[in-house]
Amino acid sequence: MDTRFLGIPELTGTPSVAVVVDVMRAYTVAAWAFARGAEKIVLAESLDDALALKASHPDWVALKDGAPAPGFDAVNSPGLLRSAYLGGRTVIQKTTAGTVGALAVKEASLVLCAGFVVAEATAGLLRQRGCEDVTFVVTGEDGRAEEDLACAQYIAGRVTGSGADATAFVHRAAESRAATELTDGIREGAHRDDVTLCLEVDRFPFAMVATLEDSLMILRPCSVPA
User: Fold this and answer.
1) Under a CB-based contact definition with an 8 Å cutoff, are residues 30 and 139 in contact?
2) How far is CA 182 from CA 132, 176, 190, 209, in A?
3) pLDDT for 163
4) What are the percentages of helix, strand and coil residues in the chain, rounded to 5?
5) pTM of the full predicted structure?
6) What is the pLDDT of residues 94-129, one digit of tens each?
């Protein structure tokens, strides 16, 4: 499998297959939303778009990065979201990097969104689809986020059968700038368990596939046979 690891600003053209990685915290949160029963997640272009979607669909659950804000129901924290009941609900998600990365490759033939919590399922879907040319979008810090790069490299290794031991990759993520900022309380809208939850490997047995539906980027869980 030919792989590239690119930051959002480095993307040129439309990749064939894209794996968009945001460990801390967008796609850990998305996985938890599905685990708590959400049917789908709409990836919003902007905060204004998220609020407009919420206004049009009052029963949808809108969440964002940072501190709580009027019009939003939740923040982008797995520690806070894990106790929510979302059975059959649609979630609107707008984050600083993760949702931006997915929307940047929305024309790709296959878009997967990932973190450590769905790493093996993501690798399994890539293997199942026979993907030979994969672009990993390292969303944080313009492609320099160590937690996202480590996760992307771990998934790539799982696809090809190497890199089976997650320990070194998780350690890199645990020492990242994002992990430090969350632990130190620098980032708003965080829970004390967020870093631990973001570093759980293969917590969930599904991959997450994003597709364009009526001009909206929709994320859904996808079961992958063992």
Assistant:
1) no
2) 36, 10, 7, 27
3) 62
4) 40, 25, 40
5) 0.97
6) 999 999 999 999 999 999 999 999 999 999 999 999
Q: CA 81, CA 195: separation in Å to the nearest integer?
A: 14
> What single letter denotes the amino acid at residue 75?
V
Average pLDDT of the chain, as a whole number: 96
Tokens 């059975």 belong to which residue?
A: 87
Q: Which of 51, 127, 130, 58 is nearest to 89 (CA)?
A: 58
**Whole-angstrom distance, CA of residue 166 vs CA of residue 70:** 39
DSSP for 145-183 reads -HHHHHHHHHHHHHHHT-----HHHHHHHHTSHHHHHHH
Contact 5, 122 (CB under 8 A): no
Distance (Å, whole) CA 206 – CA 74: 23
What's the pLDDT tens digit per position in 171-216?
A: 999 999 999 999 999 999 999 999 999 999 999 999 999 999 999 9
Model pLDDT for residues 64-91, shown as the tens digit of each residue? 999 999 999 999 999 999 999 999 999 9
Cis peptide before 192 (omega within 30 of 0): no
The alpha carbon torsion through 122, 126, 128, 133 (nearest 10 deg) reads 180
